[in-house]
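F.,

This is the one I mentioned.
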């Protein structure tokens, strides 16, 4: 009877023993906590770069639209964007794209066409206005900064390696790509060049 009571006492103390439980819980929760913190820092770094790039692109677009800067100084202005962004995002790579249109209504829109088969695209020998004379149905923009009063779509894409090892912890890409786009009209320093379209047919 006494022996049975001692066994019960041992079992009771064994069940009630909490020694080492904290260490086990910590070992289970630590990876999740690290993943959460790394993800949070990575997101914050992305949002910082996103805001910086939007601001840099907006300023570069305004500078590019001035009469003195149109054309030959575009590359210099692009370099300023690189310099500003490389302060925070080291080893970032950039691509710059400028496309000019006659007005805001036509910017980034596909060239007008007659959709005879109502499928939402230009095909089956349907006629379209080749505004930029590229011999194909596209958005109708011309590469570059354009001229006086032209509306310019300025787009900058930045790709940079992640600052934190998020890709190893969360299994995502080890690079981040951010694209910032803005539309701005060039300074009205002269009469705007008139565009004459040609009617062609989609194949």
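My design for it:
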């Amino acid at each position: 009877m006494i022996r049975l009571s001692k066994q019960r006492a041992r079992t009771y103390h064994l069940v009630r023993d909490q020694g080492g439980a904290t260490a086990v819980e910590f070992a289970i929760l630590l990876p999740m906590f690290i993943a959460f913190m790394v993800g949070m820092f990575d997101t914050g770094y992305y949002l910082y770069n996103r805001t910086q790039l939007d601001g840099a692109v907006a300023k570069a677009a305004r500078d590019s639209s001035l009469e003195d800067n149109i054309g030959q100084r575009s590359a210099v202005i692009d370099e300023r964007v690189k310099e500003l962004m490389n302060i925070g995002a080291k080893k970032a790579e950039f691509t710059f794209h400028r496309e000019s249109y006659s007005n805001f209504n036509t910017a980034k829109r596909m060239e007008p066409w007659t959709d005879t088969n109502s499928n939402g695209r230009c095909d089956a020998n349907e006629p379209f206005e080749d505004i930029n004379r590229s011999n194909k149905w596209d958005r109708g923009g011309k590469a570059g900064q354009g001229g006086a009063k032209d509306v310019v779509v300025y787009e900058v894409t930045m790709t940079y390696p992640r600052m934190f090892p998020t890709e190893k912890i969360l299994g995502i890409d080890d690079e981040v790509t951010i694209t910032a786009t803005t539309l701005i009209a060039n300074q009205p320093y002269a009469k705007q060049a008139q565009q004459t379209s040609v009617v062609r047919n989609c194949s």
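The radius of gyration is 30 Å.

Talk soon.
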